[in-house]
């Protein structure tokens, strides 16, 4: 006898991908996530591919994972996928110290962020 299967975190026509340890601040990652919210999945991949923002590389990996999850795990049509949600949050923060003049030191914060992308199959109108 095994545990009952966990309920899905998203709807029937949706697929999800989450990255929990993206190196960089949530504010910078949210700027990149704002570029793809509500867009078709193929267009969003192109936008992230040619974006000059450094966080776009990690966001593109998460979006590609969400598209692959939709295709392989949920049998959704890749051409009809839309980025339904791209939410950003804070993760851990590494604390480091840097030496300064006169025997002092200051704290350096190195933040990590979370990115959650949900793609939804949209019916063509």
From TrEMBL:
<dbReference type="InterPro" id="IPR001063">
    <property type="entry name" value="Ribosomal_uL22"/>
</dbReference>
<keyword id="KW-0687">Ribonucleoprotein</keyword>
<keyword id="KW-0694">RNA-binding</keyword>
<comment type="function">
    <text>This protein binds specifically to 23S rRNA; its binding is stimulated by other ribosomal proteins, e.g., L4, L17, and L20. It is important during the early stages of 50S assembly. It makes multiple contacts with different domains of the 23S rRNA in the assembled 50S subunit and ribosome.</text>
</comment>
<comment type="function">
    <text>The globular domain of the protein is located near the polypeptide exit tunnel on the outside of the subunit, while an extended beta-hairpin is found that lines the wall of the exit tunnel in the center of the 70S ribosome.</text>
</comment>
<dbReference type="GO" id="GO:0003735">
    <property type="term" value="F:structural constituent of ribosome"/>
</dbReference>
<comment type="subunit">
    <text>Part of the 50S ribosomal subunit.</text>
</comment>
<dbReference type="InterPro" id="IPR047867">
    <property type="entry name" value="Ribosomal_uL22_bac/org-type"/>
</dbReference>
<protein>
    <recommendedName>
        <fullName>Large ribosomal subunit protein uL22</fullName>
    </recommendedName>
</protein>
<dbReference type="Pfam" id="PF00237">
    <property type="entry name" value="Ribosomal_L22"/>
</dbReference>
<dbReference type="GO" id="GO:0019843">
    <property type="term" value="F:rRNA binding"/>
</dbReference>
<dbReference type="InterPro" id="IPR005727">
    <property type="entry name" value="Ribosomal_uL22_bac/chlpt-type"/>
</dbReference>
<dbReference type="GO" id="GO:0022625">
    <property type="term" value="C:cytosolic large ribosomal subunit"/>
</dbReference>
<dbReference type="GO" id="GO:0006412">
    <property type="term" value="P:translation"/>
</dbReference>
<comment type="similarity">
    <text>Belongs to the universal ribosomal protein uL22 family.</text>
</comment>
<dbReference type="InterPro" id="IPR036394">
    <property type="entry name" value="Ribosomal_uL22_sf"/>
</dbReference>
<keyword id="KW-0699">rRNA-binding</keyword>
<keyword id="KW-0689">Ribosomal protein</keyword>
